[in-house]
Structure formats: structure tokens, C-alpha cells
Amino acid sequence: MNDILPPESARWEWLESKVRTLMARYAYRNIRTPIVEPTALFVRGLGEVTDIVEKEMYSFEDRLNGEHLTLRPEATAGVVRAVAEHSMLYDGGKRLYYMGPMFRHERPQRGRYRQFHQIGAEALGFPGAEVDAELILLAHSLWRELGLQNVRLELNSLGEPHERKAHRAALISYLEQHVEVLDEEARRRLHSNPLRILDTKNPAMQAVVEAAPRLIDFLGPKSLAHFDAVKSILSANDVAWTVNPRLVRGMDYYNLTVFEFVTDQLGSQGTICGGGRYDYLIEQIGGKAAPAVGWALGVERVLELLKEQTSTVPALVPDVYAVIPSVAALPVAVTTIERLRQLGLSVQMHAAPAGGEGMGSMKSQFKKADGSGAQHALVFGDDELSRGMVVVKSLRDGVGAQSDHPLDSLADWASNLQSNR
């Protein structure tokens, strides 16, 4: 688990701001659920034989009442619980999004920590393929907004439970004939969760996996029509995709469409966003049956990819740095600074250094002003203040240029500065 400190935290704020703007454009509304949920929620929702439930959850017993609790390893189960608990679908479907920390006890890797952060979108109460496609288009639009390149979309369909059951039987029968090739993990999963074997990264098993029965060959006309509709909408919107028959995702709750956005620039952690349809999860955790589909992206991975591609992430810097040569100038200076902030400018005020006398030298103040990244310095000199003036000094374009401005006309100057951003 790691701290996120300035200036790195500015990258997070920039990404979150982009997400909020885009979610509003697609009419998705924010939902915030607890970090701690009953352990049973994740066992029922994710599946007892998933890696997350078996090995990765941070679970504990409440010392006061003995309740079994877990730090959320993902957010979909909590969102579904909240939707069911508050009867949110009584008046129709809901489009929701979230962002926040998740927790999994796994080996830390590049872009993966035991406390990690996800941003996700969920559309609940909508059965149609057009909503699957809308969510994929939403993620695709986010990559465009962020300036990300070389992110490819992989699709698959997991069909319906009866189709998966038929495929499961054929898959187990096939793998039993090649058990000598399977590693220990695959043998353990052979009868409990054989579909996950198809997602193995073990090179020694690739030939067997490639020749295994494909789930898509077991899909009936209705499932295939749903999948074809998703693909046709994406193609109509010039979104490139490939079908990956081995794409299964890590949770048991998926059916029909599943998808991942993948990059080759982050090594083994190439999936930056993934999701799919989960039409049976709401009923599975105790709610009234309703269809749903969603995705989640890994914030750390997306930011890592931005760094790899040297995409420009605007730094959060003040518009103005206030240089205050003397203590006597503080009342007027602080009053003026507050007025500028109320007008919408970001102003960093110089503060007296620890252990020193007065406000510090002009040289040190201008050094801090330059280091702040501000475009301008406002200098509240005693002589200028006695004339009702303040000095505006450029710190970037035309460095060194400066002029006197009447204190009572700084509002006009602030307005011009904002309009020229």
C-alpha cells in the first residue's frame, strides 16, 4: 500500500476530473458504497473458487459482534447490494459510476498494489446489447479524452448458464485427457472452475488451451444475436475489436458479453479495463432479478500507461504567487488575495519562514514564486501600497515584465487572466 503525494496526486485529480465530466456526458450518476462489506457478499457474488475469494481478500471478524467482514476487493458486488437494498430499480434502470480504493492481498507488481484504486461504470436494469456497447463506447471515449494510444479491445461471449454448463462438461472431459500437461493450479481448478484454466499464462499449457473446446461454439441463437449486436454497434462507431475466445474474466458472475481493454506497454499487467454483463448477480445476492452490465479500470495502471506514452498531464499550479516583503503589508495583502480567490483565481500566499524574522528576503520569495509554477507574481511592496498600487510581475511569458496595477482594479485584471487561460 502506498501514499500518493503532491505533485503525483495532481495527476489523479486530473484523471478523476476527466472521468466526472465524461460520466455526466453519458448520464451516469455517482454512487459511493462502504469500503467494508459482509464477507458473504463477496463469497456469493464473486464465487467461492475464484482467486479473489480463495486467496486475496482481507477478511476479519468484528470484535464487537462477531460479524465476518471484508475490505472490498472490487466494487460491483457492493453497488449491486446497494441497488437491491434501496430498491433503486423500482422506477427503471440506473446508470451509475464510482471511484475509490479496493484491497487484495496479492504480490505487488508494477501498477498493482494491495490497496489499489478503481473507477467503474455500471448500468443496471437494462437487458439490451446496446447498453453493453454504450459502456464500451464510454471507456473508448475516455482513452480518447486522456490521449491514450495503442489500447486494443478484446471481446468474448460467455453465453447463458445452460450453455456454459454444456461447455464446462466438454472442457473437463477434454482437459482430463491432457492432465499430464496441466500445472498444479490447473489441476486444482479442473473440476471446480475449469473455465479459468483457459486464462493461464503458463507457456507449457498454451497448446492444450488453444485446442480446447471453445465456449462460443456452444452458444445458441439468442446469445449469438446479442453478441453480434454488440459487435455491429461498435463497428458502426469505428471502434476496432477482436474476439478472444479465451477471455473469461476473474469473477463467476459474468454472462453473455465480456470485454477487456489491453495494452502491450505494461508487461504482464496489460489489462487496464475490463467488464461485462452480469444478469444474475442481483438475484444471487438477494435482490429482485434484473439484468446489469459494467466495467472497472485500474487507476494506477492507466496513470502508468500515461507515463509510458508521455501524455501531457496538466500540473495543478496556482495562477498567482503573492510576494509580501513586510509584515506591515499583510492586512492589505491577505484581503486582496481573498478577493482574488473569490473571483476564481488560484493564489498561493507567501508565508513567513520557520525560525526566521519577518517574511523572508525578496530573493527567496521570488525563488519560491518561480518554483510554484504560477504565471504571475503579485508584489505587495510598501511603496506601491502607499499609492494604492500592487506590482504584477510575469514569471513565464515575457519573464521579468512588470507593471503597477491599482488595487481597486485588480478584479478587471483577474477577469482578463481567466479569459486568457
TrEMBL record:
Keyword Oxidoreductase: no
Start and end residues of each Aminoacyl-transfer RNA synthetases class-II family profile domain: 15-325
Enzyme class, first EC level, given as a word: ligase
Domain of life per record: Bacteria
One Gene Ontology MF term: histidine-tRNA ligase activity
Gene3D superfamilies (alphabetical): Anticodon-binding domain, Bira Bifunctional Protein, Domain 2
Catalysed reactions listed for this entry: tRNA(His) + L-histidine + ATP = L-histidyl-tRNA(His) + AMP + diphosphate + H(+)
CDD domains associated with the record: HisRS-like_core
Subunit and partners: Homodimer.
Listed PANTHER family: HISTIDINE--TRNA LIGASE, MITOCHONDRIAL-RELATED, HISTIDYL-TRNA SYNTHETASE
NCBIfam families linked: hisS (TIGR00442)
Protein name (record): Histidine--tRNA ligase
Upper classification of the organism: Bacteria, Pseudomonadati, Pseudomonadota, Betaproteobacteria, Burkholderiales
